[in-house]
Amino acid sequence: MTDTTVIHANSVAETLELGRRIGAVLDCGWVIGLVGDLGVGKTHLVKGIAEGFRAPGTAAVEVTSPTFVLVNEYPGRGTLYHLDAYRLHCGEGLEELGIEEMIACGAVVIEWADRVADGLPGDHLTIAGRSTGATLRVWTLCAGGPVSREWLARIS
Ligand SMILES: Nc1ncnc2c1ncn2[C@@H]1O[C@H](COP(=O)(O)OP(=O)(O)OP(=O)(O)O)[C@@H](O)[C@H]1O
Ligand SMILES: [Mg+2]
Fold first, then answer.
1. For residue 41, how far is its CA from the centre of ligand 1 (angstroms)?
2. Got the DSSP string for 120-152?
3. Residues contacting ligand 1 via CB (< 6 Å)
C-alpha cells in the first residue's frame, strides 16, 4: 500500500470529479487536510467531495467557503464538516470548534490544514494542490499513518 498518490486535474471539471471519487468512499471518522495556495481549488474539491458523499435520492447541497463562519455542515451518508483554518493559528480554536466531536460523528475536511496541523490527528489524509497553469492542478494525496493509508487505497 502506498503513502502518496499524485493526480492531475486539467480542468475544474476534473477537480470536481476527483472530489466525487473521494466523496464516494468517504466515511465517518475520516479527516482530510487540504493545503495549497489561495485559489488553487480547495473549495472546488470539497464541492466534489460533498456530491460524492450525498445520500442516494437527496438534493445537492451548496458548498461555499466557510472562511467567515469557520464550519459548514453538509448532509450525506453522515455529516460532512467543512472547516477553513485560514483565520486560525497553530491549532488554536479547533478544540473549541469541537473537532473531536466532529471526527467522532462525521467526516471532516479542513482547508488550510497546515495552519492547524498541531490540532489534527497525525494519521489523517493530506491533499496538497499545486497550480501548474491557468486550469492545470496537481493534487498530491498523502497518508499520515496506517488508517489514512487504507482510505487512500480506497480512493486510488
Ligand atoms: N483545475 C482546476 N481545479 C480547480 N479550480 C480551478 C481549476 N482551474 C481553474 N480553477 C479556478 O480556480 C479557482 C479555485 O477556487 P477555490 O475557491 O476552489 O480555491 P481555494 O483553494 O478554495 O481558495 P482559497 O484559498 O481562497 O480558499 C476557481 O476560480 C476555479 O474556477
Ligand atoms: Mg477555499
1. 3
2. S-SS-EEEEEEE-SSS-EEEEEEE-SHHHHHHH
3. 9, 11-12, 15, 36, 38-44, 65, 111, 135, 137
**What is the Å distance from ligand 1's center to 20 Cα?**
16
Here the cell at position 141 is: 494525496
- CATH architecture under which domain 4-155 falls: 3-Layer(aba) Sandwich (3.40)
Distance 37 CA to ligand 1 centre (A): 9
Confidence (pLDDT) at 151: 97
Predicted TM-score of the model (pTM): 0.96
The domain ranges of the chain are 4-155
Tell me the pLDDT tens digit for each residue of 20-41.
Answer: 999 999 999 999 999 999 999 9
